[in-house]
Design brief:
alpha+beta; Yope Regulator, Chain: A; six-stranded antiparallel sheet; TfoX-like_gammaprotbact
Length: 214
Amino acid sequence: MKTVNEIRQEIAPVFKPVLGEFRIKTYFSYYAIFKHNLMIALYQNGTTYLRISRNDMQSITLHPETYNLSDDKIGLQSKKFYFIPNTILTNTSQFRSLVQSTLDELQSEKQKIDNKRSTQIRTLPNMNLKLERMLKKVGIHSIQDFSETGYISTFIKLIMQGFDATEDLLFKLNGALNHQYIYTFTIQQKKELLQEANEALYASGLRKKFNTAI
């Protein structure tokens, strides 16, 4: 198998005019080509497979020389990567259009994922998917919902829904909104939180839950 630098020299005449600088990594028995950390093509033994955007899929499938990547040796099947013949590779404007369309689609998809992740409660300190699902059951679906509700009100909601609201959960909720991991909590901080929770429970008509003599 050739080195990455050898492959770079081999494919640079095709890719550099349309990509500028790009990165290569091994991918099974292929070489993956990246731009902006997005994998746009696979290369092996002089053969280029380009990831095709939805906008170009119909035209590329109708092209008489293209076909989708299928490698039974390593069990790699892809309906998104297509063999690109020299008639397209050597047509810089056509190849650039295909590559740019793919990059635009991948960047758009990445932005959607990043935007979704920025609202997910599981991304906060101390939180995980299980706790995120728990909060959703009391109507808290995003970080904004959580922030607006507050950690004490969220804790009360969970108790009223029958969840086992422990000291540990209280600390996690507080730490999540204050960007602090619970292992950094001081004894005094924990005591004040337990007292605050007891007062909120009492004000909500519920029995005090915690022993604050810690």
